[in-house]
Amino acid sequence: MEFNTDFSKKSISFNEILSGGPPKDGIPSIDIPDFVSIEEADEWLSPNEPVIQLIHNSQAKAYPLQILMWHEIANDSIGGTPVVVTFCPLCNTAIVFERVVNGRELVFGTTGRLRFSNLIMYDRQTESWWQQASGNAIVGELTGTQLNFIPASIVAWKDFMDANPNGTVLSRDTGYERAYGQNPYFGYDDINTPPFLYRGPETPGILPPTARVITLDLNGEVVAYPFDVLEDVRVVNDRVGDEDIVVLWSPGTTSALDSSNIAEGRDVGSAAIYSRNHDGRILTFINNEEKILDQETLSGWDVLGRAISGELEGAQLNELVSVNHFWFSWAAFKPETRIYEP
Predict the structure, then answer these.
(1) Is the dihedral of CA 219, 222, 223, 224 positive or negative?
(2) Could you report the per-residue pLDDT of 207-236, keeping only the tens digit for each?
(3) 3-state secondary structure string, 113-170?
(4) Which of 96, 122, 137, 162 sits CB 3.0–4.6 Å from 152 for a disulfide?
(5) Global pTM?
C-alpha cells in the first residue's frame, strides 16, 4: 500500500485530485538541510537569481529556487521554530509554514498528486494530505487542520546577500544528484501557456491564467496585485481587512520558470507586502523617479521593506503573509478575490 492514510476523512472530492506523474516521494523532500555561507553560495548563484527569503526570530536564510525546483519541500528550523519551506513550480507558489500541529512536530513529503495543479504534501506522522496553496489538511486524520503561515518572499539573490551578510543559504549538497540551476519547466510561465494538468474551476478572464500576481488574504478580505500593474506603478498604498498596507515592487529578479537556465530567465521583478503602520504612524509611499520614498519623512526604502536613507534609515517595515501565484491557481482557491486596479 502506497499510503497509510485514513481516506475516510476528507474535505474535498477525490475527483479533484490528479497524479502529477511521480509517485509518493518521487520528488524527494530535503529533510536534513545543509547550509553554506553567503560567500560560498555566491560562487554558484547569479545576482538576479530568485531565492526564497525567510527571516524569523532574527535569523535569515535563503532557499534558492534552483534547488527547491527539484525538491519542492525543505523541512527545516529557523530561530528555534520548526518550519517547512515549500515551492510548487506549477503555481509559482513559495510558502513557508510552521510544522508543529497540536504540539507535535511534523515532517512533510510529496504525494505525487496535484489538486488544481497545486502540490499536495503529506506528513509522515499521520500521512494526512495537505494543500500547499492553503496550508490545510484535506485528506486523512488531520483533515481540517490549518498550518500557520510565516512571512517569506521571492527576492533576487543580490538583494538577500546585501541585506543579510550573516545569512545562510541552502546548500546544493542535498544528497541527491540533480541539475541544479536548470529549469525542467522551460517556458512554463509564458502568458500563452495553459496550466499543466489543471482541472478545476474555470479561471476568471480578468487576467490570463498564468499572469503573475502577489496575493494577500487579510482579516477576511482577499486581494491580488498583478505584476504587470506593479511594474508600472512600483508602489501601491491600499487598505485591506481594515489595515493599511503597501505593496512594493522592484525589477532585477529573474523568472525561475522561463529559460532552461534559471540565471538567464527574463526579469519579472520581485514584490512584497508590508504594513504601513510604523511606530504608530501610517506612512504613505510614492514612486519618485523609480525610487521608493515615504511622503512623511522622504526616507528611501527598498523592496525588502528597509529604510535605506533619510530620517528613518535602518527602520524595517512589518512584512505580511503574501504569496506569489499564477492567477489561475489563486482564483481556483480564492474565487472571491478583488483584483487591484490603479
Answers:
(1) positive
(2) 999 999 999 999 999 999 999 999 999 999
(3) EEECCEEEEEECCCCCEEECCCCEEEECCCCCCECCEECCEEEEHHHHHHHCCCCEEE
(4) 96
(5) 0.97
